[in-house]
Write a structure and sequence with these properties.
Shape of chain A: globular
CATH architecture of the largest domain in chain B: 3-Layer(aba) Sandwich
CATH superfamily of the largest domain in chain B: Type I PLP-dependent aspartate aminotransferase-like (Major domain)
CATH class of the largest domain in chain A: Alpha Beta
Number of domains of chain B: 2
CATH architecture of the largest domain in chain A: 3-Layer(aba) Sandwich
Number of helices of chain B: 14
CATH superfamily of the largest domain in chain A: Type I PLP-dependent aspartate aminotransferase-like (Major domain)
Helix content of chain A: 40-55%
Largest sheet of chain B: 7 strands, mixed
Number of domains of chain A: 2
Largest interface: A-B, 70 and 73 residues
Shape of chain B: globular
Order of helices and strands of chain B: EHHEHEHEHEHEHEEHHEEHEHHHEH
Structural class of chain B: alpha/beta
Oligomer: heterodimer
């Protein structure tokens, strides 16, 4: 049985071209970019070129890109880095209840250290209210961190409006774009974004690599100390092959940008229509207008997520209860709790399907049919 | 090209590369996912962890995969200091540590820890008598590298742990980035509590490494999020990288005694040759790792030698890659009180088992030529 992988928001397969580039770089360009000899300089050039590609993909300058070990480090760096660099200006941070744990747990850690954090609520559609944000802003607010799009339900936050609101406020605007990057067109200039996190393995690039965009002039406290790599912002020998492979994944995404979006959204629509045709009862969680093309979170009445996922697994379908990071635990999703409250059936019967590379219409039709057999 | 800068980074071993490619092809799932694909991927991750734990002689749950040596060192210093701060605030660090330890320790002292520095003698080896005086009842952490990356000097870790154990409850962290795979490293023989390993220094992949703890030693995280790696290192674990790291580690310890002999033979031969030049001073001490030979040419800048050798396709470095782009003098050489005539002319030849006698012979020929042109020797 060929498995049907519908969990691309957890992690995605590396594209063939990316594997080729990665493998070739590991074989050929193995220098340490800090070395001053030719082997080192060759590696440095590779990193520089890759950085330019990453920067351009969000309308930034290459000096504004700090390469990290992934989305978690980028988020931690943005949150801790801002907090400790600006603690003399203020100790108030605003974020949302539906952030990834890389932001939420970093904020909770800061609370233990004397910072004050406001966690903005979301409505039933998973959207924050600009008014709430406006009312929460204070003179001593140093950071506002709102994710670009949520990883569990795919809902896209009003980033442009937030940027507009914050452009005259001293607080830095950070957005975790891990799930949005590659699916949405992002421009840090027009959106007035100061800090933005990206992860490679969600866009068919290698695991263990990502970046944080930091608008020019922003000075964060590093979280890793050591050598003077990444303009003294991030110590540690650069992971050259992964950086180059990451840039390749970005280029591939850009080449198929509208294509991929349309394609994955098309798969989602086919999947939804088939479920409807088969009379599977379900309700989509989160906004259906402001949503990522490749993420779908549905609640199916009278199912239990744990059992349902096992059944799906036996039927050869890889899906998830929300995020892979929380999948190991039986705690209800903090995102769904924020949307629906503490005790609604959605917390126990919601499943996320996320579409991506190598998925076909036949696969999603087959998945829908298998689901109907399980549910009906 | 003759690559003699293996302490900066190494070429990926073909078998490690194959492992990476194969795992990446078949087991690219997120190991935290609960579907079978995720489980299978996670099982592979756990077996990588087991293999490493066996080699280092600790338990599986004490192996934490990180993004490399720098992160592991940061995690060790911050994480152990914070975990055990109720016992005291005193931390001891040697003067010749890698910047990823030194800068982290400086940061600790900014936030209220009492950091003191263990000095080294002219051979670049920590002074145990001074250490004995520095260790206090409230010392909570001692961090000393196994092999110095700039000189190859082996530090007396076993003696150090005896002194530390006798006088305190401090934990001992050892940066083994330069020693692992070059001399024996494990928790039992050294009696330490934490070990840092970086993959790309042992023919593994960049962007991967680990921190290993002895059984029952605990630590606070420095990255927060999804709670991977038992909550100690959040972020999706790259299983292909972890398995490739395990492979590189296995390869590094396979045939270790023979490899040591091979490297020793090559470096002894090189040292004997270098000593025939009156203006060359060997800086590596007698008690050194077999793969590093550090020396200096009197009154000639290191960069000049590097470029001259490079024109003949031989790659060596000044004392370290991390510092080679800085103009300031190496903190290690300063701590050793290397004289002005020599401190700017330091060169490091670092070998790997992929090097051979022919390459060393070629190095000698080229070196002699270069010395002729530059020094008229």
């Amino acid at each position: 049985m060929t498995r049907i992988y519908l969990d691309h928001a957890a992690t995605s397969p590396m594209a063939e071209e990316v594997i080729e580039v990665y493998t070739a770089e590991m074989k050929e360009v193995f220098g340490n970019p800090s070395s001053i000899h030719q082997t080192g300089r060759k590696a440095r050039k590779k990193v520089d070129d890759a950085r330019t590609i990453l920067a351009k993909s969000i309308g930034a300058h290459e000096t504004e890109i700090t390469i990290t070990s992934g989305g978690t480090e980028a988020d931690n760096y943005a949150v801790f880095g801002t907090a400790y660099a600006r603690k003399n200006e203020g100790k108030h941070i605003i974020t949302t209840q539906i952030e990834h744990h890389a932001v939420l747990h970093a904020c909770e850690q800061l609370e233990k250290d004397g910072f004050e954090v406001t966690y903005l609520p979301v409505d039933k559609n998973g959207l924050i209210s600009i008014n709430d944000l406006k009312n929460s802003l204070r003179e001593d607010t140093i950071l506002v961190s709102v994710m670009y799009a949520n990883n569990e339900v795919g809902v896209i936050q009003p980033i442009v409006e937030i940027g507009e609101l914050l452009k005259d406020h001293p607080a830095y605007f950070h957005t975790d774009a891990v799930q949005a990057y590659g699916s949405l067109s992002i421009d840090v200039i027009t959106s007035h974004i100061d800090l933005l996190s990206v992860s490679s393995h969600k866009i068919n690039g290698p695991k263990g690599i990502g970046f944080l965009y930091q608008r020019k002039g922003i000075l964060l406290k590093p979280i890793f100390y050591g050598g003077q790599q990444e303009r003294k912002k991030r110590a540690g020998t650069e992971n050259v092959p992964a950086i180059v492979a990451f840039a390749k994944a970005v280029q591939l995404k850009q080449a198929t940008f509208t294509n991929g979006n349309v394609e994955y959204n098309q798969l989602k629509q086919v999947f939804l229509s088939e479920l409807e045709r088969l009379k599977v009862p379900f309700q989509v969680n989160g906004s259906q207008e402001s949503v990522l093309p490749h993420v779908l979170n549905i609640s199916i009445p009278n199912t239990d997520v744990e059992t349902f996922l096992v059944q799906l697994d036996l039927a050869g379908i890889d899906a998830s209860s929300g995020s892979a990071c929380t999948a190991g635990s039986i705690d209800p999703s903090h995102v769904l709790v924020a949307m629906y409250g503490e005790s609604t059936p959605e917390l126990r019967n919601s499943v996320r399907f996320s579409f991506g590379l190598n998925n076909t219409e036949e696969q999603v039709l087959e998945a829908a049919n298998k689901i109907s057999k399980i549910v009906l | 090209m003759i690559y003699l800068d293996n302490s900066a980074t190494t070429k990926v071993h073909p078998e490690v590369l194959n492992t990476f490619v194969a795992v990446n092809e078949k087991f690219w799932a997120n190991p935290a996912s609960i579907h079978t694909f995720g489980h299978q991927t996670n099982e592979l991750l756990q077996s990588a962890r087991e293999q490493i734990a066996d080699i280092l002689k600790t338990s599986n749950e004490k192996i934490f995969f990180t993004s490399g040596g720098t992160e592991s060192n940061n995690l060790a210093i911050f994480g152990l200091a914070h975990k055990y701060k109720q016992r005291g605030k005193h931390v001891l660090i040697s003067e010749i540590e890698h910047p990823s330890i030194i800068e982290t320790a400086k940061k600790l002292s900014e936030i209220g820890f009492d950091v003191e520095w263990i000095p080294v003698n002219s051979e670049g080896i920590i002074i145990l008598d001074t250490l004995e005086k520095l260790v206090r009842k409230d010392t909570i952490l001692v961090s000393v590298m196994h092999v110095n990356n700039e000189t190859g000097a082996i530090q007396p870790i076993e003696e150090l742990s005896k002194i530390v154990r006798a006088q305190s409850r401090a934990l001992i962290h050892m940066d083994a980035v330069q020693s692992f795979g070059k001399i024996p490293v494990d928790f039992k023989i050294l009696d330490i509590d934490a070990i840092t390993i970086s993959s790309h220094k042992i023919h593994g992949l960049k962007g991967s490494g680990l921190l290993a703890l002895k059984k029952f030693v605990e630590i606070e995280p420095i990255l927060y999020g999804g709670g991977q790696e038992s909550g100690i290192r959040s972020g999706t674990t790259s299983v292909p990288l972890a398995v490739a790291t395990a492979k590189a580690i296995r390869l590094a310890v396979t045939d270790l005694q023979n490899n040591i002999l091979k490297l020793q033979t090559l470096s002894d031969d090189l040292m004997v040759y270098l000593n025939t030049f009156p203006s060359v001073k060997v800086i590596s001490p007698a008690k050194k790792a077999p793969h590093i030979v550090t020396f200096s040419v009197q009154k000639v800048k290191g960069e000049v030698m590097i470029n001259a050798l490079q024109e003949q396709d031989i790659i060596v470095s000044t004392s370290s890659a991390c510092s080679s782009r800085q103009t300031k003098t190496s903190h290690v050489l300063k701590a050793m009180h290397i004289s002005d005539d020599y401190i700017k002319g330091v060169l490091r030849v670092s070998l790997s088992t992929l090097n051979n006698q022919q390459e060393i012979d070629q190095f000698k020929i080229v070196f002699k030529r270069v010395m002729n042109v530059i020094k008229g020797d």
